[in-house]
Design a protein that fits this description.
429 residues, 17 helices, 7-stranded mixed sheet, globular, alpha/beta, binds zinc ion, single chain
């Protein structure tokens, strides 16, 4: 066992349903055995109770739960930074040419390695990963995630129209290829499978029907929705009988409590009501929405309808893998919305990128905070001495203030150490 001592902060409460200040908790020590938290409390209390256990001191900075990224594209790790285009142009010019390269298994293996190295260096220990269009690339992704012990949900991306031909699969091969991948990887260690049509723009009713057949196997579902007005208009044209974008998924039974839909920047009230009724979650991707000019996410309307919301980096359209940057951008967007915005506190921001993500992925009984019995997935944010963040932390008046300064200033360079189910991925710097 190991006793970790420091300033340890999490959000056992939900800041969106109660007083945000009450959602935040701080303790001085955690006791971890075999990767699982078995006690939390003050240093004095835990040392008195467990006098023989070694103590790891985390002096300075904050220890927070491992981040949960609910929308990130692994094949796009080499395609970040394509600015100046709306969604459909960006897909055609930046994202999809890169995704085609993953047909080469050796290339996909390198990309998977770069992707997970980047995630861990950014403090992300759990993710719903938008996969590749190619089966061997998915085998490489799952193998790499398993090797690193990460909590990963992912699946083969399915499309049968509109995209470049090399990225298309037929509904028949989509069914057999996905079923094989589910058998190989779903529920293996910390891995799970997610049925993943790219979006209904590139998936016919026949393909969405295949997705429904696969969902019967107890796996997850993810896709995109309501990201960009031109995209929404095209989807409406392709599904003339649909009431709205969500209906293209709803009428195939694809919207359940195991569904996570990315973006939803332009929903109507009926869509929000249907998402809430079915317990589905929305992944809000703030820097992507801003980079592509997709729009300002209506968080208040989601929360008022009772829709679960978490954060996604949406790399490569997003501006990097570091979720505190997404949280900061989420805060900015709500400020810019004026009276329609939902003012976010540091407790909201921490919740969105940890416990909120765990709840969206149905993992709240295992990760997302430091409750006893949960996996010890953790990030020690401790800036280098003399950095502007270090100066600001020194002058923070309390933990909430310290968190605010971290959201304003932190970068991956401030990630001093990451634990994945109790295993430290890097020696503290
Ligand atoms: Zn995306």
């Amino acid at each position: 066992m190991t006793l970790y001592a420091g300033t340890i902060v999490d959000t056992p409460g939900d800041p969106f349903t109660g007083d945000p200040g009450d959602a935040l908790a701080e303790v001085g020590a955690l006791l971890v055995r075999d990767g699982v938290i078995c006690a939390r409390g003050s240093v004095a209390a835990l040392r008195a109770e467990y006098p023989d256990e070694p103590v790891t001191r985390l002096d300075g900075g904050l220890l927070v739960p491992g981040f949960v990224d609910t929308h990130v594209h692994f094949p796009q790790i080499r395609a970040i930074g394509g600015l100046g285009m709306p969604l459909l142009d960006w897909l055609e010019r930046c994202a999809l040419p890169e995704e085609s390269k993953l047909a080469d298994r050796a290339y996909a293996r390198e990309v998977a390695s770069e992707f997970f190295d980047g995630l861990i260096a950014s403090g992300t220990t759990s993710a719903l990963v938008f996969g590749s269009h190619f089966v061997p690339a998915m085998d490489e992704l799952f193998a790499a995630a398993d090797h690193r012990g990460l909590n990963i949900t992912s699946g083969l991306v399915l499309s049968d129209r509109i995209l470049r031909p090399d990225l298309l699969n037929s509904p028949e091969t989509a069914l057999t290829d996905s079923a094989d991948l589910i058998l190989r990887w779903h529920d293996r260690g910390r891995l799970r499978y997610a049925v993943t049509p790219r979006f209904s723009l590139s998936a016919s009713d026949e393909m969405l029907d295949v997705c429904a057949q696969l969902l019967g196997k107890g796996v997850w579902f993810t896709s995109h929705i309501n990201e960009n007005v031109a995209e929404i208009a095209q989807v409406a044209g392709l599904f003339p009988g649909a009431r709205h974008y969500l209906d293209t998924y709803l009428r195939h039974g694809l919207v359940t409590e195991r569904s996570v839909l990315a973006h939803n920047v332009h929903p109507d009230d009926a869509e929000l009501a249907a998402l809430a009724e079915r317990g589905a979650s929305v992944s809000h991707c703030p820097t992507s929405n801003c980079a592509l000019g997709s729009g300002l996410f209506p968080l208040r309307r989601h929360i008022e309808h009772g829709v679960r919301v978490a954060l996604g980096s949406d790399v490569g359209a997003g501006a990097g893998l570091f979720l505190p940057k997404e949280a900061l951008q989420a805060y900015f967007i709500q400020q810019l919305l004026g009276p329609d915005g939902l003012p976010l506190t540091p407790a909201h921001l921490l919740y969105l990128m940890t416990r909120g993500g765990a709840r969206a992925l149905g993992l709240e009984d295992r990760i997302g905070d430091f409750a006893v019995g949960k996996d010890f997935d953790a990030v020690w944010l401790r800036p280098p001495a003399g950095s502007t963040l270090a100066v600001n932390l020194k002058h923070a008046c309390d933990t909430t203030d310290a968190l605010a300064r971290i959201f304003a200033l932190a970068t991956p360079a401030d990630v001093a150490s990451v634990w994945i189910r109790g295993v430290s991925d890097q020696a503290p710097r």
